[in-house]
Structure prediction request, 125 residues.
Amino acid sequence: QLAAFRMLMFSICCTAISMVTDVAIVAMFKGVSLFYLITLSVTSLFVFSTVFLYVLRRAHSRYAKYLTGAGWILLNLVPFALFNGLYGTFLKSVPLYAYLIMAAACTVIYINNLKKLIIPKEMEM
Prediction:
């Protein structure tokens, strides 16, 4: 239950920090849509949180959570480094509704998995 609470607090804190950062980016750069940037950030955070929670529940290795975090960073840095501007162009070319659908789906999956951590199996009946 403590892990579930920590995951929930982590998600809330990361979302808040991300939104503050997004507002700062929009203030510094003209032509950047705040709604699009927040949607992209929230989608990314919930995709990572969903994957991380899945690994946390399934993998019993002490190193699984570290590998998941490192893998997520590499999964984003490698295309950025190898394909320079192409990765950013790809992210911008994905329609807003696709990000909204992914964010909604991952949020539902995340909450359901979080509930499974909070509610012990014998109480789920």
Observations:
- The two ends are 18 Å apart (CA to CA).
- The chain has a mean pLDDT of 85.
- The chain has five helices and no strands.
